[in-house]
Amino acid sequence: MSISYENLCAFLYREARLLDERDWDSWLALYDENVSFWMPSWDDDGELTDDPQTTISLIYYPRRAGLEDRIFRIRTDRSSATIPDTRTAHNLSNIEIVEQNGNEVKVRFNWHTASVRYNHTDQFYGTSFYTLDLSRGTPIITDKKVVLKTDYIRHVIDIYHI
């Protein structure tokens, strides 16, 4: 199975919209149970860390259960990083199909998120790399790596900022 560029873009735009609308159940449904969700950090030499098991990461969940736990804490006000609520606007660009092999497609794109909290606007941007499984009729994210280019930040960054 393959995916058209138009449908790929629609899928990615939908994920961004679900984050902006805080539609957590629909957002989580886009992720495979065994998804790896990783945002590496930059080391002292300006290089990205390369192994979430042995080096520091900004975010790392080896399975969707970690994302589900994060959403639970956001919903139940057990997350000081999300009180008060943060408003976001995600913008995507330079969407590329990097590789397509059978039911698997690898995607790369740039993103920019504006975020408002405590009457202050923050800007985050970076590049994301997804692996999608197309065998289920609708794409499912099986691997997500997010490279945050604006890593000098004044507060905690969360899943909805990226």
Keyword list:
162 residues; alpha+beta; Nuclear Transport Factor 2, Chain: A; 6-stranded mixed beta sheet; 6 strands; globular
Structural account:
The protein is α+β, with helices and mostly antiparallel strands and 162 residues long. The chain has a single domain, classed as Roll (Nuclear Transport Factor 2, Chain: A), CATH 3.10.450.50. It is built from three helices and six strands, in the order ααββαββββ. The protein has helices at 5-21, 24-28, 64-75, and strands at residues 31-40, 57-61, 87-101, 104-117, 120-133, 140-148. A six-stranded mixed β-sheet has the order 2-1-6-5-4-3. The longest helix is centred in the N-terminal third of the chain and has 17 residues, at 5-21. It is globular. The two termini are 28 Å apart. The mean pLDDT is 91.
Overall number of structural domains: 1
Strand fraction? 35-45%
General shape: globular
Contiguous low-pLDDT stretches (5 residues minimum) are none
For this structure, the CATH topology is: Nuclear Transport Factor 2, Chain: A
CATH architecture: Roll
Radius of gyration: 16 Å
- The termini sit apart by 28 Å
Series of secondary-structure elements, N-terminal to C-terminal: HHEEHEEEE
What would you call the structural class? alpha+beta
Secondary structure tally, helices: 3
Residue-averaged pLDDT:
91
